[in-house]
Design goal:
The structure is a single chain. It contains 10 helices and no strands. It is mostly helical and 190 residues long. The protein has a single domain, classed as Orthogonal Bundle (Tetracycline Repressor, domain 2). Helix 1 crosses helix 4, helix 4 runs parallel beside helix 8 and helix 9 packs antiparallel against helix 10. The longest helix is centred in the N-terminal third of the chain and has 22 residues. The chain is globular and about 60 Å long. About 4% of the residues have low confidence.
């Protein structure tokens, strides 16, 4: 039975979303094409009808995950967003969490297309009004951009460091607690 163009597009989108989740959970090298396609409900052979290579899918899935991460923050007060972001709940759910915190280290060792997807996603996130404490009059000055980059780096770094510790290690929670308190204090001081 022939698949319609609309169904093929929906199937591709489903594969990309599934890949985005699996890559955040297991890393790029932790997911094979066969496992990914099975998780999406398709056969391994259908992969190359949608993508030229796994690297092509990795770039598209990264862009998808970065957009989903940005959308999740939309409409939240910055302090509330950062309180959640630098938390055990976020730390313990990488598949549903931020793509940057889950895959930045992996992306650094991937092809240029994956790095480009990350650069575009990070740049878009840095330029989002939600990352500036001057809402609704967003500070577009170089200093404002520098503050947003620093906040993002601290938040992502806290989650990455915490995830690198054993789940039951007191240090994992200590990192989150100290970094969350520091970031929120910096926001309150402005």
């Amino acid at each position: 039975m022939k698949v319609t163009k609309a169904q093929a597009q929906a199937n591709r989108a489903h594969i990309v979303e599934t890949a985005s989740t699996l890559f955040r959970e297991r890393g790029y090298d932790g997911v094979g094409v066969a496992d990914l396609m099975a998780a999406a409900g398709f056969t391994h052979g259908g992969f190359y009808k949608h993508f030229g290579s796994k690297a092509d899918l990795m770039a598209e899935a990264s862009a998808c995950g970065l957009a989903q991460s940005a959308d999740a923050a939309a409409g939240m007060e910055l302090a509330d967003f950062l309180s959640y972001y630098i938390s055990r709940e976020h730390r313990d759910n990488p598949g549903q969490g931020c793509t940057m915190a889950a895959l930045c280290a992996d992306a650094a060792r991937q092809p240029a297309s994956v790095k480009a997807a990350f650069a575009a996603g990070i740049d878009a996130q840095v330029d989002r009004p939600a990352l500036d404490d001057a809402q609704p009059g967003v500070d577009v000055s170089p200093d404002g951009r520098a503050r947003r980059i620093a906040l993002m780096a601290m938040a992502v770094g806290a989650v990455v460091l915490s995830r690198s510790c054993p789940d039951d290690a007191p240090l994992a929670d200590e990192i989150l607690d100290i970094c969350r308190a520091d970031v929120l204090a910096r926001l309150a001081a402005r």
